[in-house]
Amino acid sequence: MIKRIIAQTAGVAVLGAAIAASAQAAEFNLKMHHFLPAKAPAHAKFFQPWADSIEEASEGRIKIKIYGSMSLGGKPPQLVDQVQDGFVDIIWTLPGYTPGRFPAISAFENPFMVTDAYETSQALQAYYEANPEVQKEFADMHPLAFWTHDRGVVYSKGDAIDSVADFAGKKIRNPSRPVAAALDALGATPVGMPVPEMPQALAKNVIDGTVIPFEIVPALKLHELVDNAVEVQTEDGRGLYTAVFLLGMNKAKYESMPADLQQIMDDHAGIYFAKLGGEFFKNAENYGRKLIDENATRSQMPAAEVKKMQEVTANVPVEWVKEMDGLGLPGQKLLDSANAMLEKYSK
């Protein structure tokens, strides 16, 4: 009798554990893929808390496992295809890694189209939402959000690049076509490459310098590879450049979710995410500055040279408009919209 009771009790316990495990099993186990290592601040201190928040809000029905360093295979430019093909469910990437594929979103990558990450990220998201031509570029996926990093900084091995003349002949890594056009106008030789390739390129002298924000310094150990970092800022607070980030989701996966789970994803996307991402990337600048200060030299480009840079690169957005027009897009309308949004969110 006692054995029977024990057996029944054990059976109930096992059944209860099975029911509990079943209740905790996620309805949607999503794979998120990106290009930086898991120890990077953006992975550990930004995306992971974001994923945890979604899991909590969905009471465990959505779980997101994040894979960094392209650990699921491929190279950064392939992330867009991976999410569109359903190989992964969510990606973090830069549209600029696939030149010519998402031209309209690159309006913010023209010279001096950034104030700080928090303001510019909101302006970028609003720009996307306001322009059907931009939305059409991402019709094959479900964009969760767009945002930017803070003002780009000019890093160099050897002497500081702190004047327009200093760019002449320098091989500088660039993240996108508009930035490449700006560097070319300044007399440099732009070298396009994704972020993960940059440390080796610097170490092997493939490039003389790079443009990148302070936020990325710790992840790439950039402070061990450069001698100088020059900040570029206009009197009204605009920086030399920024890069557009994309958080994209597989369209079929999003559409397969019930309405309540779609709402949870929506609540963690759009302008909410742009604010979140912008704030994180703005605040993350401080640690990168600290590492540069401890290992290299950080300086500000003289105001007169910044004005020269503005003059020398003034034709870049003009050519960008012509390029958009040639693609059948309303170039000037898009550029005006981007500037209007930046003004709106920078007040």
Biggest sheet descriptor: 6 strands, mixed
Shape: globular
Q: Measured on Cα atoms, how large is the radius of gyration?
A: 23 Å
Number of strands: 11
Reading the helices and strands in chain order gives HEHEHEHHEEEHEHEHEEHHHHEHHH
User: How are strands sequenced across the largest beta sheet?
Assistant: 7-6-8-5-9-11
Helix % is 40-55%
Strand content: 15-25%
Structural class: alpha/beta
Mean pLDDT: 93
Low-confidence stretches: 1-23
**Termini Cα gap:** 78 Å
* Helix segment tally: 15
Characterization of the model:
- The chain has 347 residues and is α/β, with parallel strands linked by helices.
- The protein has helices at residues 2-24, 41-57, 79-85, 117-130, 132-137, 177-185, 198-203, 217-220, 251-255, 259-267, 270-283, 285-295, 303-312, 315-326, 331-345; strands at 28-33, 62-67, 90-93, 142-148, 153-156, 171-174, 189-192, 209-212, 228-231, 244-249, 297-300.
- Strands 7-6-8-5-9-11 form a six-stranded mixed β-sheet, with helices on both faces. The chain has a five-stranded mixed β-sheet with strand order 2-1-3-10-4, sandwiched between helices.
- Strand 1, helix 2 and strand 2 (62-67) form a beta-alpha-beta unit.
Write the layout of secondary structure elements.
Blueprint: H1 2-24, E1 28-33, H2 41-57, E2 62-67, H3 79-85, E3 90-93, H4 117-130, H5 132-137, E4 142-148, E5 153-156, E6 171-174, H6 177-185, E7 189-192, H7 198-203, E8 209-212, H8 217-220, E9 228-231, E10 244-249, H9 251-255, H10 259-267, H11 270-283, H12 285-295, E11 297-300, H13 303-312, H14 315-326, H15 331-345
Parallel strand pairs: 1-2, 1-3, 6-7, 6-8, 9-11
Antiparallel strand pairs: 3-10, 4-10, 5-8, 5-9
Helix pairs in contact: 4-11, 4-15, 14-15
